[in-house]
Specification:
Blueprint (H helix, E strand, L loop, with lengths): L17 H27 L3 H20 L53 E3 L16 E8 L12 E9 L5 E9 L8
Antiparallel strand pairs: 1-2, 2-3, 3-4
């Protein structure tokens, strides 16, 4: 049948063949799948900033808690703690780690010196009364305290401590903060 007699093939009109239409649909589908994949990834990672901010807030809080503790040559329970100019003047010298029976939580013998926090860790964030903090059950924290060089202070003197707080949260998010605490002779309770 001549094209002038066929209604779909009139002069000046062009259309898509079935093959062209299928190729077009395949190309558009591939492009759409790529764009949707980007949206899915962005949506899945949108909670990460909140988790990171929460881990940072926990780390900052714990670092401040440790830095506000006394840093004396003697255990603060020692009668000489306020006046001792070195550990030789102490009946109970302060060492890294808690003394027997001490714990971070309020009770009969809570931590009372920066050094006591060395090696402390908790699974699920707990307040000072040892109560779980709602919503923070999936976070973990650990603290290390070590002698440090700081400006003109030599690590061997023991007059400067580096405090490292590491907090891990859901999805493997980990934050690590470091701070320092110095001893002010003879009394470092401030």
């Amino acid at each position: 049948m001549p094209s002038h007699l066929h209604p779909s093939r009139r002069a000046g009109q062009q259309g898509l063949t079935l093959v062209e239409l299928i190729v077009f649909m395949v190309v558009v589908s591939a492009a759409l799948a790529g764009v949707l994949q980007i949206f899915v990834q962005a949506g899945a990672r949108s909670a990460d900033p909140m988790i990171r901010r929460q881990a940072l807030a926990i780390a900052e809080s714990l670092l401040q808690e440790v830095q506000l503790m006394p840093f004396t040559f003697c255990d603060p329970d020692d009668a000489n703690a306020d006046q001792a100019a070195d550990s030789a003047a102490c009946s109970q010298p302060e060492n890294l780690g808690p003394e027997a029976g001490e714990t971070r939580y309020a009770g009969s013998t809570p931590f009372d010196n920066v050094n006591d926090y060395h090696g402390f860790s908790m699974s699920g964030i707990r307040d000072l009364s040892d109560s779980a903090v709602s919503g923070l059950e999936r976070y973990n924290a650990s603290i290390t305290v070590a002698a440090a060089d700081l400006g003109s202070i030599n690590a061997g003197s023991g007059d400067a401590l580096q405090i490292t707080v590491t907090v891990s949260g859901p999805g493997g998010e980990t934050i690590s903060l470091q701070g320092y605490r110095t001893r002010h002779a003879p009394n470092a309770a401030l």
